[in-house]
Amino acid sequence: MNVSTPVLEISALTKHYGGVRALDGVSFAIAPGELLALIGPNGAGKSTCFNIVNGQLRPDAGEVRLKGRDITGLAPRRIARLGVGRTFQVASVFGSMTVRENVQMALIAARGQVFRLWAPAHRMAREEALALLQQTGMAAQAERPAATLAYGDVKRLELSMALAGDPGLLLMDEPTAGMSGEERQAMIALVRSLTRARDLAVLFTEHAMDVVFGHADRVVVLARGRLIANGSVEEVRNDPAVRAAYLGGVTPAASEAP
Ligand SMILES: Nc1ncnc2c1ncn2[C@@H]1O[C@H](COP(=O)(O)OP(=O)(O)OP(=O)(O)O)[C@@H](O)[C@H]1O
């Protein structure tokens, strides 16, 4: 068991939209080096949770702590600087720039500098960019324009860019969306190895259950804004409440609804 301070600790997070309880008293934590899947049926509250952690949304109640520090309600930029990286479902890379230049730009932006092709900082970041691309298996593609990459490689590039700020916590929004079965497995295996190598905590949402059950250290399940399970793959897979939520069965919360 890891006894160090959690990288992320969320406590009693609550967010309502009118009558919709997008999040209702959700609490969980992530340790360094842990790969934690956040799953749940559509509308369960996964995106709301991500958006609160990275500062895009303010919770109505509850707290977000990063390595023990209260970051609730801080601006996204500040939260990013404190070590929270994020990848999105739709990749955001510059197609006309090379893979290496995209990573250099991310490295320089992470330091609050401006990307200029002729500046010395650009040359310095070059070696770091190549080292990062080595870690994500993209070194051989470093000089290709990003626009010419296969889809799975665009996602690897995006991951490389998210690592540029040297985050302690990485939020990944459906990292394998749109990938074939083989690409999915390769991507999540890469993320898995990076968590170990960098002592990085990763919180990811995912609809592909082969990815979740094959690779996550732990799984947190939301349904209708409530946490209904938090445990190992085995525990969650065999949990009747989880099955009911996924099969569209009537959960206790749903049966109470008017
Ligand atoms: N800006 C908003 N205004 C009103 N309701 C919202 C808003 N954002 C989210 N919701 C509602 O909050 C609930 C949780 O939404 P959220 O997007 O967090 O779920 P999710 O688990 O990410 O879903 P999905 O898997 O479909 O992406 C849903 O009922 C959704 O309709």
What does this structure look like?
This protein has 258 residues and is α/β, with parallel strands linked by helices. The chain has 2 domains: 1-83 and 167-258, P-loop containing nucleotide triphosphate hydrolases (Rossmann fold), CATH 3.40.50.300; 90-166, no CATH class. Helix content is 37%, strand content 23%. The chain has 10 helices and 10 strands. It has helices at residues 46-53, 76-81, 99-110, 120-135, 151-162, 181-198, 209-215, 233-237, 240-246, 252-256, and strands at residues 8-17, 20-30, 35-39, 61-66, 69-70, 84-87, 169-173, 201-205, 218-223, 226-231. The strands form 2 sheets. It has a 6-stranded mixed sheet, sandwiched between helices. A 4-stranded antiparallel sheet has the order 2-1-4-5, with helices on one face. Helix 3 crosses helix 4 (120-135). The longest helix is centred in the last third of the chain and has 18 residues, at 181-198. The protein is globular, with a radius of gyration of 19 Å. Mean pLDDT is 89; it is low at 249-258. The structure holds adenosine-5'-triphosphate (ATP). Adenosine-5'-triphosphate binds at residues 17, 20, 22, 40, 42-48. Keywords: ATP-binding, Nucleotide-binding, Transport. InterPro entries: AAA+_ATPase, ABC_AA/LPS_Transport, ABC_transporter-like_ATP-bd, BCA_ABC_TP_C, P-loop_NTPase.
List the helices and strands and how they pair.
Layout: E1 8-17, E2 20-30, E3 35-39, H1 46-53, E4 61-66, E5 69-70, H2 76-81, E6 84-87, H3 99-110, H4 120-135, H5 151-162, E7 169-173, H6 181-198, E8 201-205, H7 209-215, E9 218-223, E10 226-231, H8 233-237, H9 240-246, H10 252-256
Parallel strand pairs: 3-8, 3-9, 6-7, 7-8
Antiparallel strand pairs: 1-2, 1-4, 4-5, 9-10
Bound molecules: adenosine-5'-triphosphate.
Adenosine-5'-triphosphate binds at residues 17, 20, 22, 40, 42-48.
